[in-house]
Amino acid sequence: MVFPSSPLAWASLVLGPLLGLYTVLFIARIVLTWYPEANGQKLPFSLVVMPTEFLLIPVRKVIPPMGGVDISPIIWVGIITLLREVLIGQQGLLRMLA
Q: Which of 9, 45, 69, 84 has the CB geometry, 3.0–4.6 Å to 19, for a possible disulfide?
């Protein structure tokens, strides 16, 4: 296995899986909204709720849930997808600088 030598390559190596993980967590969070009986304080649901809640709270203050529909996880999926493409996509900044 070849390890990257530059800090930008390391950043790309770490950010890719991290942003991918958060995308999956937010998609799971969207699915959890379909099941209101799911308790976010108990396992296994807390594994999805705890790492994402601190990011959802500020978005909910700007765009509150309307009619029982919380779109804040959808907004975060869009933000993370955009960040991933801009930073480590095929024409991403970290890839071009490395």
A: 84
13-35 per-position pLDDT tens digit: 888 999 999 999 999 999 988 88
CA distance 92 to 12: 10
Cβ partners under 8 Å of residue 56, min gap 6: 29, 70, 72, 73, 76
The helix (run of H) or strand (run of E) holding residue 7 is helix 7-32
Amino acid at site 72: S
**CA dist., res. 8 & res. 97, Å (int):** 7
pTM of the prediction? Answer: 0.85
Cα 38 to chain center, whole Å? 20
